[in-house]
Amino acid sequence: MGWLTSDDLYFWDNGTFRKSYEKLGAHPIHGGTWFAVWAPKADYVSVIGDFNEWDSTANPLQPVGSGIWEGFVSEAKSEHRYKYHLRRGSHTKDKTDPFGFRMEAPAEGGSATAGLSSIIDSLDYDWHDTSWMRRREGPGTLRAPLSIYEVHLGSWRHREFGESFSYRDIADPLADYVSDMGFTHVELLPIAEHAYYGSWGYQVVGYYAPTWRYGTPSDLMYLVDTLHQRDIGILVDWVPAHFATDPQGLALFDGGTLFEYDDPAMRVHPDWGTYIFDYGKPGVRNFLTSNALFWLDRYHFDGLRVDAVASMLYRDYSREEWTPNALGGRENLEAISFFKEFNEAVYSQFPTAMTVAEESTSFKGVSTPTYDYGLGFLYKWNMGWMNDFLSYMGSDPIHRKWDHNLLTFSFVYAFSEHFILPLSHDEVVHGKGSLFGRMPGDNWQKAANLRLLFGHQYCHPGKKLLFMGGEFGQDREWSHDSSLDWDLLDIPLRSGLKKWVRDLNLLYRSHPALWNDDRDGWEWITEHAEESILAYQRMGGGRTLIVVFNFTPTPRENYRLGAPEAGWYRELLNSDATVYGGSGMGNLGMVESTPVPFHDRAASIVITLPPLAALMLEMQR
């Protein structure tokens, strides 16, 4: 009796083996371990490991169809190390298991052949997050606050002597911090096994193995479990666009092209020197879709942020030479089909999860359901807003009036997708400097500009994402090798900035107007390019919020602004308050509107606009 059934092979051949990780890889049962690996071009496959003294002739596997080899090894037990030995013609190689649930650290000197899979039985863990999983909202967050804190685990904080925290040791400090700051979710940079630490996890070798750098699989489960018990969601960055070329991994796995494109013009990613998955192969679709479900299933992640979606959607992405699709066009039809199947698989099996696309083009329907001919993601990163707004905020205020369109253009398309507004790790690397460092002026002006930037992010339609360190004005460009500069919080200007982000989160989460991201939740009041002033309304839950921004260092006293109706308006937040490090200008808490028509409204208020400041005022009923 074999391990894979005829049904398993049927679904594999059709690219619909949704949980292939339950059969491929190493699976201990009573009396030994079953091994199964996809290697259709190999002439001979065996499993080698601690249990057979790495003898390639001791435990050969048998082909069972569909390019899959399987075999039972009675001597193989939990925690034994193993690899697959593959021969094609006269060429042999030893490979780590594509479905390996755990890999060990590289050998001293970074040997390319290191990274042995370890046999883990069923990834058992005693979860305590039943309450969270029962009431978790994925699609429900479209009508709820979603504020994400993006984290690179190895550099958030360090122990003495520069050691990173483990998954287990970071759990409580991270939960405490995120809870106090008011974020609803954490998003981890990729944690799947990667040989090159400097890739930040984006050059994956082991798709099913959490990196050894921070501990064991159960340690990672403990981190997820801890956050869930503190009512904090957790997403993970997932990388199906390309994979590392390290010889122990997926590259040329069975002696020929397998996971990658057969076509040499499409095989290598020109930006990263990695190999690109061939999404037209059923085995690749099985591998990737199963991997997405694996992280949601076995690790209880609440969602996947899918990296580099644009590079998958276009066959000519970042390349001069490319092969057109079957219709002669530039779209990657197989990748488009894969995304639809992937999203349908996720939401059919985990309807309260979420998928997020990092997609930088105007590809239509990224966050539209597949039944409406979209790709089926729940959210899309708004890269246009991010690029335009950072360019605008990076210029000297005296020049901003000439770039006013960079500030306002995002409202033209703000409701065309379900957007997340990202200020991510990508904006503080590769010579771009930190967010604080990119702001113009002296330190006081930099802090004021950054408070203004965050204020607009939280009031603009769309969910929120901020990379670690931005919340207190990290000075240095982010480095994966060192901790954030937490001692900056001893400086009042930086601790004030952190308090501003905390209070923005608290206001955002308590005010339905700020997370009503439908078209009826936003309305212009006015915008003045010459004075670099912006004002609009946010509406939701029967409440109305007026937000006003002064993007210059010139205070505006007696500034008249149209109001939706007569009455009193309370100043909820003012980024220029002294508690945030500002100059202390403001409106003494309350402003009364008068029946003076202005800005096409029957009433108006007269306010003071502090320098480089954001104001949020709520109509009192």
What can you tell me about this protein's structure?
The chain has 621 residues and is an alpha/beta fold. Helices cover 24% and strands 23% of the residues. It contains 15 helices and 26 strands. The strands form 6 sheets. It has an 8-stranded parallel β-barrel with strand order 9-10-13-14-15-16-17-18. A hairpin with a 4-residue loop joins strand 19 (522-528) and strand 20. Helix 3 packs parallel to helix 4 and helix 6 runs parallel beside helix 8 (333-349). The longest helix has 19 residues, at 492-510. It is elongated. The model is unreliable at 109-113 (pLDDT under 50).
Report the span from N to C terminus: 74 Å
Radius of gyration: 27 Å
Class from helix and strand fractions: alpha/beta
**Major sheet: arrangement of strands:** 9-10-13-14-15-16-17-18
Oligomeric form = single chain
- Major β-sheet profile: 8 strands, parallel, barrel
Question: What is the average per-residue confidence, as pLDDT, rounded to a whole number?
Answer: 95
Summarize the amount of helix as a percent range. 10-25%
Helix count from the secondary structure assignment: 15
Q: Hey, roughly how much beta strand do the residues contain? A: 15-25%
Question: Can you tell me the overall shape?
Answer: elongated
- Per DSSP E runs of 2 or more residues, the count of β-strands stands at 26
Low-pLDDT runs of 5+ residues are: 109-113
